[in-house]
């Protein structure tokens, strides 16, 4: 019986494996075929579809729910019916719960494949690796469930037979299986959205530990063997991931960090760099790169997340600019939020392709960019890219006119606006900004802004006398002093923390003396709206005017809303696009 179970399950394993490969191929082919076809016809498929391409649409759009069903159907069928030539009642139940373990390991290969950050298949298919993350999450959950049920049923059966100790702890192969089970069980709660976002670094470490344990320990635990082809396949993908990371990462010094008083946005300037002589400076607008404070030889570079940041500049600019929102949480050194510092060296992993669909870059005629907070780092290069197309057209060396380009930036604090002062390239777009760049300051009325400005110089904690400090550094320090002193005797603690604080601020010193390179005031923009978010009805009413044209369908097909920001804003943007029946593409800064 044991031999029969093993033989049948070895053969069974090939079904989910082949299903996975076909599924991946379908993802690639459908996106590629549809992109070519629809780009040629100047249609984008992201919103509209007909029954003929209904099936492919879900592959194209990566609709997770539908894709999961497509994947699940062949998986469930092969799981239940194989072996086909034995009557169902004669198949021992053990085959199935043993098989669940194999299924989870086989699916890990697909899971690794879809998370490859930069691979030829993604390039060919015009997918971005961030597109795959929702699918990766659902597949991981499915793998967890199959592994969990596999382990649980074994434990229950052993418990009923009263052989738990003998089978689980005295059998070294099963003990390894139990260890994998425990590691997975620790990861599971950490992967729930709330905890994942709160303790992202911890989650990420645990995620990698689980991955390594699962891939490397399962071949020892599993009987029959899972070495061929699954383990070798996974090793090949892991090797590609490591080689790519090594190949594309360089240690670079931050040229400049501009601290914006009263705001937690910072402008970061990095040098452009080449990789093995290859020009690495030609990238689509809103591509991103990744930064790590650790050197590639440091194990933490591999175990902790690298930080993705949108490139706020364009390839033609002198530097690579980032607009970064600095967080201030974490006391444990490894878990602290990333702090980028001027003249300090960081490991930069080259740009990753933009998530803006190619059909938008090629065919868009009406564009709305709606971004919140640090999402401006995503919005600015897109805005400039399309404005440049129009400028080229006006100068006679382009053939593309984008009729409408509007940028909406939602911020909670007027000081965030000041970051634009330091984006030198904006000087070339003054007329355009005045025409179609709209600002929403959600939490301040004009009166509050004036009051704030008048009181901005008042520093409540008089002990802090640090030359060259900025308002936000002082705020950070004040916050830290108060937080730390909650738990200790106030006076002792205060001096100590203030000393640390002084050093930190001195280290962080940046030149905010000059008044920036691009002058801003209320008149700079098309509109500055205080104390409110965009009004999704009245502010975008002009989109309804499309209905008056004969070719309304075509206009809608070439109208795009690109959005980036907090979840609430993203939700509203999707609703707006659906209501107005136009295309949209969203970049989320949180996984
Ligand atoms: C494609 C992309 C582009 C981005 N571009 C920008 C940008 O231009 N400007 C900007 O300010 N921010 C951007 N972000 C977000 C930025 O990467 C995170 O805010 C940053 O990594 C947080 O680092 P931290 O040490 O402060 O994190 P923590 O203080 O540990 O966590 C703060 C929050 O950031 C999230 N986070 C932490 N690390 C990562 C990570 N490696 N990947 C994704 N989320 C993470 C956590 O879920 C948490 O909610 C982008 C994110 C993505 C995915």
TrEMBL record:
Pfam families attached to this UniProt entry: FAD_binding_8 (PF08022), Ferric_reduct (PF01794), NAD_binding_6 (PF08030)
Keyword Transmembrane helix: yes
Domain FAD-binding: 256-330
Keywords tagged on the record: Electron transport, FAD, Flavoprotein, Ion transport, Membrane, NADP, Oxidoreductase, Transmembrane, Transmembrane helix, Transport
Chief site of localization: membrane
Gene3D superfamilies listed in its UniProt record: Nucleotide-binding domain of ferredoxin-NADP reductase (FNR) module
Family, per entry: Belongs to the ferric reductase (FRE) family. AIM14 subfamily.
Protein name (database record): Probable metalloreductase AIM14
